[in-house]
Amino acid sequence: MANCYWIICFLVLCCLVGVYEASAGDSDPLYRSCLKQCEKTGCVGERCFSHCKFSSDDSSLDSPWYMQQPLYLWWKQWDCQSDCRYHCMFDREKERAELGQWPVKYNGKWPFQRLYGVQEPLSVAFSALNFAMHFHGLVCFCSLVYYKLPLKPDKRPFYDYVGLWIIYGLLSMNAWFCSAVFHSRNLTASILNYRDIDLTEKLDYSSAVALLGYSMILAIIRSFGLRHDAARVMVAAPLIAFTTTHILFLHNYEMDYGWNMKVSVAMGIVQLVTWSIWAGVTRHPCRWKLWIVVVGGSLAMLLEIFDFPPYQGLLDAHALWHASTIPLTYIWWSFIKDDADYITSNLLKKVK
Ligand SMILES: [Zn+2]
């Protein structure tokens, strides 16, 4: 009997997980029938798609991209299925809006307005600006430590964290590049095979996790002032192992959004708490910049947790979160440069 209860509990749980994972829009019968109709006729209402002239059970769907569509359409037009989904979704959302209903998600995503083939244009633009901010910050930081500040007799900087910050800058640029590619996914889809959209998503998530894991290590090393290699390795090794395992889990086992969100938020909170405790006890002259980044970063994280549908089909919570990190990145690199300046002048005072 007890076994029976366990089986029922398990089945209920499976159903709940299933309901939770499917987006509300996907289960809408009107949306589904529109999709079915479109895949059969290649039309949604009066709009017909020229490259949509195959039946839904066409075996060519499983063949590579060059078998599915002519080359001249390959880079310019989206796939039939994507067009059907997009137009059915918008027609359905229009009807829902007329009835005064709130927007719902389709395939796990909010209904976004495409702009020049880009699925989430504002997220792409903000990701590109974040990339530019990190590039600018990294170049300025390197020119400060290697050309403006005095160097040791062996031509190495006095500041002990140069290498760590350079890796941080590169990982950040990588993460924002992957983010821009992922958010432009319909453009990417028209250039790549459709299967590869999954890859851009995985790359976006894993590069963000890699950055979060690395910046957590950096937060601990810098705030505790760890300058010996042995101590640094002791902090870094378990955290690198954990981050790598998590990324491998996402890539090879299951792309679990809920679990990934929990891990990312936990990593984010650990570094925000580390930096804020340090900002509270240190006498660093630029700790106010650290405070701005910690408070701003915490507020920005709330945007990622409390999602809302896109305003005018363009600006959603996620895009706003990407926008908020642009000024924070500028202040952050300014703090890093001030830190290099402060530590170098302190060490020089001691030498004298
Ligand atoms: Zn994003």
UniProtKB/TrEMBL annotation:
Membrane topology summary: Multi-pass membrane protein
Localization recorded for this chain is: Endomembrane system; Golgi apparatus membrane
Lineage, top-rank taxon, reads Eukaryota
**Is Membrane one of the keywords?**
yes
- UniProt main location, coarse: membrane
Name the residues that span the membrane.
124-146, 158-183, 203-221, 233-251, 263-281, 288-306, 318-336
Alphabetized InterPro entries for the sequence: Per1-like (IPR007217)
The family annotation for this protein states:
Belongs to the PGAP3 family.
Q: What is this protein called?
A: Post-GPI attachment to proteins factor 3
Give the organism the record lists: Rehmannia glutinosa (Chinese foxglove)
Instruction: Kindly list the organism's lineage.
Output: Eukaryota, Viridiplantae, Streptophyta, Embryophyta, Tracheophyta
